[in-house]
Please model this.
Amino acid sequence: MFEIYQSVFEGIWLILTTIMIQALVLVAAHRAEKGYKVGVINPSLGQESFFFRSYRAFWNSLENIVPLLGMTLIAILAGYDSGKLNLIIWIYAISRIVHMLLYYFIATDKNPSLRSLFWVSGLVVNIYLIVDLGIFLF
Model:
């Protein structure tokens, strides 16, 4: 039954792996900070700090994965179109990876920035899934 969702599962694996990598990068960046203290973040840090950017990228990923995973679970259990779900998951996965890399390598307070485009693309596919799944269910 779940074979038709194999690529969806692979995409979810990639998304969750990306978040785990972000967590490891965050821990390493935090420990590299001068005056490192467990669980303490210097409130004066800004975009110039890699630790700050890695922290923000990680937490942004956590905030955005919850609706996607919940809707994906409902979609699979309800028999939602595997082709649509596959496309949604892979657009989201690639968007989040590019967003993370841009967050890591471009220090800017400009908003919107290039990374905002990839954040928005992840948001748009999330919203599409919520709406289209709702239509499918009701």
